[in-house]
Amino acid sequence: MNVGMKRLAAALTLVCVGLTSVNALAEDANPKRGRVYFKMVCTVCHMTQAGKAIPPSSLTMAEWGAYMDADKHDKSGASNTSVKYYVSQEYRKSVADSNKAAKKFLDVPDAQLFADVRAFAISGAKDSDTPASCE
């Protein structure tokens, strides 16, 4: 095998390992923790900042998946544009004094909490078996 083929094989191995890690997170997602975070952090902020909640039942499962995959929180640019930012430890630390859920989940890795919130939003979508509100 020449050097180029070895590099390609190594790169493909890294991609496969990375995809396996992402899939493992998705399989290990905790939608209950995602529900608590979504309702106590996301919903509270949306109610305070925008005056309206955005419940999981407002979108379909496919729409939530596309929204999370696109990682675009606010197209207007009025806030941080990344969805992942709002589950990051950086963000959680910034609101921990005023938000018990953010404080409670400070030690949860960003990717894990994102997977948890994603799982809750998708499992509570309007076309799921258990549509969820923000109440």
What would your notes on this structure say?
The chain is mostly helical. The chain has a domain at 31-123. 59% of the residues lie in helices and 0% in strands. The chain contains six helices and no strands. The protein has helices at 3-27, 31-49, 61-70, 89-95, 100-104, 110-123. Helix 2 packs across helix 6 (110-123) and helix 3 runs antiparallel to helix 6. The longest helix is centred in the first third of the chain and has 25 residues, at 3-27. It is globular and about 35 Å long. The model is unreliable at 8-25 (pLDDT under 50).
Describe the secondary-structure layout.
Elements (H helix, E strand, L loop, with lengths): L2 H25 L3 H19 L11 H10 L18 H7 L4 H5 L5 H14 L12
Helix pairs in contact: 2-6, 3-6
Which terms summarize this structure?
6 helices; mainly alpha; 135 residues
| Number of DSSP E strands | 0
Low-confidence stretches: 8-25
Please work out how many helical segments DSSP would assign. Answer: 6
Strand content: under 5%
The proportion of residues forming helix, as a percent range, comes to 55-70%
The dominant shape is: globular
Concise overview:
The chain is mainly alpha-helical and 135 residues long.
